[in-house]
Specification:
Elements (H helix, E strand, L loop, with lengths): L31 E3 L5 E5 L9 E2 L6 E2 L4 E4 L8 E2 L4 E10 L5 E9 L19 H10 L12 H5 L7 E6 L8 H8 L1 H15 L3 E7 L3 H10 L6 E6 L8 H9 L14 E5 H13 L5 E7 L7 E6 L4 H7 L11 E4 L6 E3 L12 E5 L18 H5 L6 H9 L19 H5 L6 H14 L1
Parallel strand pairs: 1-14, 9-10, 9-12, 10-11, 13-17
Antiparallel strand pairs: 2-8, 3-5, 4-7, 5-6, 7-8, 13-14, 15-16, 15-17
This protein binds iron/sulfur cluster (2 copies).
Length: 444
């Protein structure tokens, strides 16, 4: 089917999943804008999968915006940079959005000198593949779509890779940061994809975009109309369309065995935000110090897609969009999307590399876990689980502490997408049960 014949909502898809409400109209037409830096940033020394960074600064040090303040010798890691200029006032454990605390560098912001100004502009075509990879490594890039896997490790593969897939599905409700990026930064996104293609040796890039973003598809299709090495793949609007295995299967037809690395199948999947950040890292030498965050919800006076400095506390984000953090009784503040994001009880927690959204959900949109009942054996969760699991069985075993049986029911294959809980008529907090059981099973 020709791109011009695709209608909103249509497109290629995987089996399973669910159609969830979009709630994207709060922000999908709002251009990206910049949020003022907070008076103080809190920068955790681990914002990625892999080893935590060693701190490179001391209390009292003056730092420049973009200065490296944490690094590690471990292969799977990513350096951390100051997102503002200022003075280091503390290096200590601070609340983190994953729950608990994490060692963090606290910087009092020098508002006058916190704008990042590139020292040079580089032409990627005049850089070797090793130089491109090094720029991405030094910038501290990590997957911005949620997983936060270090980008350098991802692209430094010795597997033969023929295909780059750009993930522009953005299938979670409310989130529109990737959507706006594709509309407003299409040239830079394409240039970023060309950089990644050279790094991994891919000959073809597919852009997977859900068809509730027709303006993004149109902008990119116009820019790519003469290119054989790029192809836009319109995706049906379904959750979790952006999950890596489903994208690969939907776009290339290649099955991804459980636990397999995508590179072993000849594919690398990168989020569009990460691809844009790779462009900025290579061309401007810009470290990963800020990202686009969707700030949304029906009670947010000024929702939008904001460029937010890493380390910005949630309470600053909320105040900047007109929300009083002290007036949120009964509301939930969520980092990420409502399906996989994490509810935050401490609003001092900072935005980090993989935080796609800050949502404020009012009481009528919040499902309280206390109201669930026993499983009524309707089978809906089994029917919709995209990984062909038995969520009902997993939840019953976990709820009753029968942890030794959970591996028999493939608990490790649960991607915590939340569909089972979403469709459950008994309102069972299935993902909560599964998440709570995993560390216990891991210890057994
Ligand atoms: S069991 Fe896991 S993978 Fe399956 S629907 Fe539930 S959360 Fe998603
Ligand atoms: S959807 Fe809920 S009630 Fe239905 S089988 Fe699954 S756990 Fe049981």
């Amino acid at each position: 089917m020709e791109l011009k014949d695709i209608k909103e909502g249509e497109g290629k898809s995987f089996e399973g999943g669910a159609h969830v409400p979009h709630y994207k109209s709060f922000t999908d037409n709002i251009p990206i804008s910049r949020m003022a830096p907070p008076a103080e940033v809190i920068i955790p020394l681990q914002q990625h999968v892999g080893a935590s960074c060693d701190c490179l600064v001391e209390v009292g040090d003056k730092v420049e915006v973009g200065q490296k303040i944490g690094d590690s010798d471990a292969y799977i890691s990513a350096p951390i940079h100051a997102s503002v200029a200022g003075t280091v006032t503390a290096i200590e454990a601070r609340p983190h959005s994953d729950g608990g605390e994490m060692d963090s560098v606290v910087i009092e912001t020098d508002q006058e000198h916190s704008e990042f100004v590139p020292q040079e502009t580089r032409d990627p075509d005049e850089m070797s593949v090793d130089e491109l990879k090094e720029a991405i490594k030094e910038a501290g890039l990590a997957g911005m779509g949620g997983a936060a896997f270090p980008t350098y490790v991802n692209i430094n593969t010795d597997q033969p890779v023929d295909t780059l897939i750009l993930n522009g599905a953005e299938c979670e409700p409310f989130l529109t940061c990737d959507h706006r990026l594709m509309v407003e930064k299409a040239d830079e996104l394409i240039a970023g994809a060309e950089i990644l293609m050279r790094c991994i040796g891919a000959k073809k890039t597919y852009l997977g975009i859900e068809t509730n973003k027709m303006d993004a598809i149109e902008v990119l299709a116009t820019k790519l109309e003469d290119r054989d090495d790029f192809e836009i793949v319109p995706l049906a609007v379904k959750y979790p369309q952006g999950y890596k295995s489903y994208l690969i299967k939907t776009i290339t037809g290649r099955d991804v065995p459980r636990g397999a690395r995508s590179a072993a199948l000849g594919c690398i999947v990168r989020n569009v935000g990460t691809t844009f950040a790779a462009y900025e890292a290579v061309v401007y030498g810009k470290p990963f110090i800020e990202r686009i965050v969707t700030v949304s919800g029906p009670v947010v006076p000024e929702p939008g897609n904001y460029i937010v400095r890493l380390g910005t506390p949630a309470e600053h984000v909320l105040r900047e969009v007109g929300v009083d953090p002290d007036e949120l009784e009964g509301h939930k503040v969520i980092f990420g999307g409502p399906m996989t994001g994490l509810a935050q009880s401490d609003l001092r927690v900072p935005v980090v590399k993989n935080i796609t959204g800050v949502l404020v959900l009012p009481p009528d949109m919040v499902r309280e876990d206390v109201s669930y009942t026993d499983c009524v054996r309707c089978g809906l969760c089994v029917e919709r689980c995209p990984n062909w699991l038995y969520p009902n069985q997993l939840s019953i075993l976990a709820e009753h502490g029968i942890y030794e049986k959970l591996e028999d029911w493939d608990i490790w294959d649960c991607i915590e997408c939340g569909i089972c809980a979403y469709v459950c008529p008994a309102d069972r907090p299935i993902v909560h049960f599964i998440k709570r059981a995993k560390p216990i099973v891991d210890e057994m």
